[in-house]
Amino acid sequence: MERWTARGRSYDRQTSYALLASLLRSAFGIRQADEEAVARAGIETRVRELGLNIDVATVRLVLDVLGYASADFDPQAGRRVLVEVVRNVIRRQAALGPLLIVAEDLHWMDSSSQAALQDLVPELVSLPCLFVATGRSEWEPPWPSQRVELTTLEETESRQMIGLSLGGDVEPSLLETMLLKSGGNAFFIEQLAHSLRETGAIGQEGGVWVGRRSLALVVPDSVHEVLGARIDSLGAGPGRVLRAAAVVGRTFWERVLERIVPSPTLK
Questions:
Q1: Cα dihedral value 254, 259, 265, 267, nearest 10
Q2: pLDDT tens digits, the chain, 267 residues: what are they?
Q3: Which are the contacts of 235, defined by CB distance < 8 A and separation ≥ 6?
Q4: Domain limits at 77?
Q5: Residues 104 and 22 in one domain
Q6: Does 65 share its domain with 27?
Q7: Most exposed: 9, 61, 108, 168, by fewest CB within 10 Å?
């Protein structure tokens, strides 16, 4: 199954077609760090593979959306052409086999991408294509959809996940402490299990996970504390790189980090 991804970002909400550009990069196999010539080659190769004919002006429009040279298209005409390009690429790909499109954090989607998706998503019901979108609870998709609310885990589910995350039976007092601290947050449970193992705060005795230190002192109160402790345990070099990368964003490249972190640290 072919899988394409896209993600909304808080700092891109005012950037036209930012989310759609993310989807196009995934569809064409283009990295954000790629030079224009590499991106152009990726577009042209992919459209040939799909049996599409796209003229030079349209390729330039796609490059414009991806953040390269301006295509000087009329905004309305450009939108129509862009939507048609995405529509045709999706249709041709779906004709080759099932297609999964995963678009995350759409509560940060820019208005231009939203308008384009309003035209495109309703058409997907006739194709072997599944469009999965995630967003905060206050976000409402502007197209027909089946909504799945992700709530906190029930106590039984939390107990099961703790056992799976640690990989074995868990001492009752340790289990209850982890249940209380995590509050049914699946991500918190996962990170807490990693942190307790890495720090040696827990260990296995007779195949059962037990606390080796006072649980009140070693179990963090929030997921931020858990992640902070894990970062601190990395050591000065890796920790510095990770903090610098966090400033750059969720997606980053070595050449960007090299400008703000000395190369020996990166190695």
A1: 30
A2: 999 999 999 889 999 999 999 999 999 999 988 999 999 999 999 999 999 999 999 999 999 999 997 777 788 889 999 999 999 999 999 999 999 999 999 999 999 999 999 999 999 999 999 999 999 888 999 999 999 988 889 999 999 999 999 998 999 999 998 998 888 989 889 988 988 888 888 999 999 999 887 766 556 666 677 667 666 666 667 777 777 777 666 666 666 667 777 655 455
A3: none
A4: 2-133
A5: yes
A6: yes
A7: 168
